[in-house]
């Protein structure tokens, strides 16, 4: 298939592009390149791509494409809270526009990167399935719910949106993110000897390795239409349904000499969800996640040591919010986060 991969220069996209290419697909990227230089280790070999803002996509970008994998977004809860209006412009309106253009161009499958954050304050220790009520607690998660609703309305006999509700990702990607929980805690452990838990540690936070998420998208791309058409899927594995306190313990074990410090300074985090991932395994037989949290913590610690992660990079280069603030201060993006030429 010829696959348009938006967000190909992000954390997940940089891992997903080679997985798709290895499966025999022709990958074309599309990204504004906001984090293209945020690389830890050898520079990745990106597929050919369009450097364009999602809000400026035209019919030309989707012409001749068989499927779209749509990752590009302001990609986490704190970012969304920084600028809720921009989050809705980029994550919601521009995503729906892209989907309409794709449908009009005859694209048959549209895999949308949603999130388990849509369950928000699900609470409790029971497993949350795809039919559970959606309780987003941030503009980021709300934007994902709105896209799912609007894409569902576009589904028809030729156009199949698929809603991939990913667990929080972890693991090494050349375009590292240090602002997601496992990657963050491993970095702190190595740089300071402390595994700092800012909440009270009790929230459930399902995790999935970036490579497993990439394999799930690759599997959804070629699954029979009737198995995935207009359906939502939780992407991850029950073995990685962990509390923040358990994640911290795994990190302390993976980084010798580090100790868990629970500061609780952020108070109780309302986001807590323990997730049932069985629907995707049933719909796409043969798929399962391969990585555990412990293996991911060891992989990250190795990568951080090998590539010489510094505190400066950890806090600035690999933290999405800090990168955008710095770009705004430097004038390389305007106040709508459009890159200036
Ligand atoms: N990483 C996770 O834990 C996680 C979990 C669930 C869902 N997701 C979703 O997966 C997708 C990818 O996440 P990620 O971790 O790779 O994030 P990321 O921030 O590393 O990558 C996002 C990419 O989108 C691009 N982008 C942002 N705004 C754009 C715009 N206006 N025009 C064009 N490109 C733009 C950025 O340049 C970046 O390359 C996102 O939609 C995110 O919401 C991520």
From TrEMBL:
Residues in coiled coil: none
Residue span, NAD-dependent epimerase/dehydratase domain: 3-236
Listed InterPro entries: Epimerase_deHydtase, Lipid_A_modif_metabolic_enz, NAD(P)-bd_dom_sf
Any Pfam family matching the protein: Epimerase
Protein name, per record: NAD-dependent dehydratase
Organism: Streptomyces flaveus
Organism placement in taxonomy: Bacteria, Bacillati, Actinomycetota, Actinomycetes, Kitasatosporales
